[in-house]
Amino acid sequence: MQRIRPEDWYSVRRLDDGVTAISEPYIQEFYRCNVWHVRGRARDMLVDSGMGVVSLREWVPLVTERDLIAVASHTHFDHIGCHHEFECRAVHAAEADLLADPTRQNTLADPYVTDEIFDALPPEPYCSKCYAVKKAPATRILEDGDVIDLGDRRFEVIHTPGHSPGGIALYEKATEILFSGDIVYDGPLIEDTYHSDAADYLASMERLLTLPVRLVHGGHFPSFGGDRYRQLIRGWLDEKQK
Predict the structure, then answer these.
(1) CB neighbours (10 Å) of residue 220?
(2) How would you class 219 by CB atoms within 10 Å of its CB: exposed for 0-12, middle for 13-18, buried for 19 or more?
(3) Domain Metallo-beta-lactamase, which positions (predicted)?
(4) Residue 144 burial by Cβ neighbours in a 10 Å radius (0-12, 13-18, 19+)
(5) Which of 20, 77, 136, 239 could form a disulfide with 83 if both were Cys (CB 3.0 to 4.6 A apart)?
């Protein structure tokens, strides 16, 4: 399979509202995490950090321009691979131990990380069988209701267990923007990992449905508006209640 140069590994696309989408286009869409960069007045925020097969700090200059807090929506391999590169790291209390001591098992690298999840491989010496997330102990432990303050922007932490025990979403009330992680996005949702919980998932979706949301930036697949957000959640809830 073709190897990609490190300078070509990432795609960077500036959106509205001071948000930049960073992605790894050579990872197949189902496995490809959305990395979100949010510009604030006092500091910036990074929501998730991809697989970590190519350095974000070295090859995406945007993430080194200003003081930055790297937030983990949860601790699966595709979301925390570059967290170790950042000095300030935040995660929900329920998954702080995983961020500090990741393994192939507890990050779901087993069984998902194989050459088959790529359309082209990362640069050498990458090896799927050797892949492992590096330790990145949190410098801030998050709980439901906490606020990440960027100076002129405030994001509320919403604990959304279900996909994983420490999953979170980040909500900016002023703009009605939601960074939803993997609890809801416009694609097939994963509800059966080793630490998923059906009752928690149901409660999280019921809670999210009450939130006034204008725009959603999910953990996977394209962003979408509030109408689609409510349609997705209602459809999911209706399916569960049959």
Answers:
(1) 22
(2) buried
(3) 32-220
(4) middle
(5) 136
**Residue with the two structure tokens 């807090």:** 69
The Cα angle at residue 215 between residues 211 and 221, in degrees rounded to 5: 115
- The fold of 6-241 is Metallo-beta-lactamase; Chain A (3.60.15)
Tokens representing 88 are 């300030």
Reduced to 3 states, what is the DSSP secondary structure of residue 46?
strand
Task: Count the neighbouring beta carbons within 10 Å of the beta carbon of residue 203.
Answer: 14
CA 35 to chain centroid: 6
Whole-angstrom Cα distance, residue 200 to residue 205?
9
10-residue mean pLDDT profile of the chain (242 residues): values are 97 97 98 98 98 98 97 98 98 98 97 97 97 98 98 98 98 98 97 96 98 98 98 97 80
